[in-house]
Amino acid sequence: MRMSMGLQARQLQTQKLAPRMIQSMEILQLPTMALQERVEQEMNENPLLEQQENDPLAPDEMDDDYPPSKDARSENEKELVVDNDHSNQEDFERLQNMVSELPNTFDESFKRSANRMSEDADRRHDLMANAVSRPESLNDFLLHQLAELDIDDDVEQVAERIISTLDARDGGYLRSPLADLLPAGHTPEDLAVAEKSLAIVQSLEPTGIAARDLSECLLMQIKSTFPHFEEMRTLIKDHLADLAENRLPQIAKKTNYSIDLIQTVRDELHGLNPKPGAAFMETYVPNVTPDIILEQDDSGEYVVRLDDDRVPTLFISEYYRRRLQDPTSTAEEREFIKNKINSAQWLIDSIEQRRSTLTKVAQAIVAHQKRFLDEGPEAIEPLKMQQIADKVGVHVTTVSRAVDDKWIQTPRGILPLKRFFVGGTQTEDGEDVAWDTIRLKLQELIDKEDKSDPHSDEKLVDELKKAGMTVARRTVTKYRKKMGIPSSRQRRDWSLVKK
C-alpha cells in the first residue's frame, strides 16, 4: 500500500444559513419578556435605533413632535438604501461628539408627562413592596436551634458538619455514613462523639430530620401516647415493604394482627411525614406572561391577538438618516452609520416576521383545537407540528420555534402553546383520538372500579377497547405510572374483600 502526502482540490456543495436568517429564527424563538430584553440590549448597542412606545399618550397629551409610527412613515422612509461600496473603519469617537449636535426637540418628543412618571414610580414601589423575601433554609433553621443549646465544642462542630450535608430536596435525610464526616484516622472516641452529635441534630425540629432511612424517620415521629404505638412500631420496623405493596394478608399472617387493625395503623402512619425537610425546599414558580391573547368576537369566533405591547415599536433615527446623506459627513462616519442601519433594519424586519409567523401559527392551532376550547380537555384532538406547518406554509422547525416557551391566554386559562400538540391513535371506526382523551378515560375506569377487585392492566385494555380505544397493555402501564396510579394490587381495599 503506497502512502503519500499532497494537496488536492475538491468541489463541495454545502448549505449555510445567512446571518439574517439566523437572527430571524432567534427572534422568533424568544418569548415576549426575553424579546423585550433583547430589544433593550440592541438599543444600547445601536445608537440609530429609536423606539415608540405601544401605549401612546392620550390625544390631548400627545406632543405634536412625537415620532411617527412605522406605518405612518412614507414608503421612501421605510426603505433606506445605503452605500455598500466602502469598507472604512468605524469612527466611534466622532459619533460620540454628535450628541452635542442633536436638536433640542429630539429629546422632548420622548419626554413623558409628570403623571406618567409618577405612575411608573408607584409601580416600581409596589413591586419592591410586594417582593417575596427569601425563606429560611433548612440548614439555617437547624443551625439557629443548635446555637441555643449548651453543648461541648467538639460535639457542636460535628453537629454542624452533619447539618451541612442535609438537603431539603432529599427530605432532610442523612445519606453520608458518620465515619465519612470524620477526619481520616479517627478513633472510636471520635465516632462516639459523632453519634452524640447525630442524636442532638435528630432532636431538633422538624421531627424526623437527619434520619438515615425511612424506617428511622418514621420511628422518630411516633410517640408512646399514640393509640396503636406498639403496632405502629412493629409495622415500621419489620413490614414497611409489605405495607407499600399492600400485602396486608401476609402482614396479618406474620403478626397475627387483623386486616382491619393493620389498615387502621396504616392510616395513622399516613399522618406522619416521610420527608420532614421538604417543607424548606424552595419551589420555583415561573412568572408566566402570555404572548398571545385569545378572544371571541361578536359571532363567537376565536380571534388571536399578539400581546407584545411591552416590546417597543422600533424605527431608525431620522437624525442619523440625514447625517448619512449629509455631504459634510466623513467617509468613516457614513460607514459606521451604514453598518448600524443594516443591523437595525435586520432587527426590525425580524420582529415583524416574528409577529406575522406567531400570529398565523397560533390562529391555525386554535382553529384545529376549537372543540378543546369549547368543551374541555376531553375534546382535544391529535395534532402534530407538521400539520400546522403545512397549513401555514412554513417548515416544521419554524413551527417548533414559534411555539417554544410561548403561552396563550384562553377562556380556559393560560396554557403553553405546546399543550395543543398531542399524539393519538385511531378507534376501530377509524376516528382519531388523542392520548389525553385516553388518559381521561383511563382515570374514569379506575375511579369507578370495584376496589375489592381492581382492574389489572390487561382488564383496563379490555375496558378501553369496549369504549372504542385500542391500546397496548404496555401503553396502559406507562400512562398509569405517569398519572401516579398504583398497580391493581396496591389499589385493592382489603376491608372490602369477602372473608
Automatic annotation (TrEMBL):
One of its GO terms (molecular function) is DNA binding. Residues 49-88 are annotated as: Disordered. Residues 67-88 have a biased composition (Basic and acidic residues). Residues 129-320 form the RNA polymerase sigma factor 54 core-binding domain. Residues 335-492 form the RNA polymerase sigma factor 54 DNA-binding domain. It comes from the Bacteria. InterPro entries: RNA_pol_sigma_54, RNA_pol_sigma_54_core-bd, RNA_pol_sigma_54_DNA-bd, RpoN_core-bd_sf. One of its GO terms (cellular component) is DNA-directed RNA polymerase complex. Keywords: DNA-binding, DNA-directed RNA polymerase, Nucleotidyltransferase, Sigma factor, Transcription, Transcription regulation, Transferase. GO terms for biological process: DNA-templated transcription initiation. Pfam families: Sigma54_AID, Sigma54_CBD, Sigma54_DBD. Belongs to the sigma-54 factor family. PANTHER family: RNA POLYMERASE SIGMA-54 FACTOR. This is RNA polymerase sigma-54 factor. It comes from Rubripirellula lacrimiformis. The lineage of its organism: Bacteria, Pseudomonadati, Planctomycetota, Planctomycetia, Pirellulales.
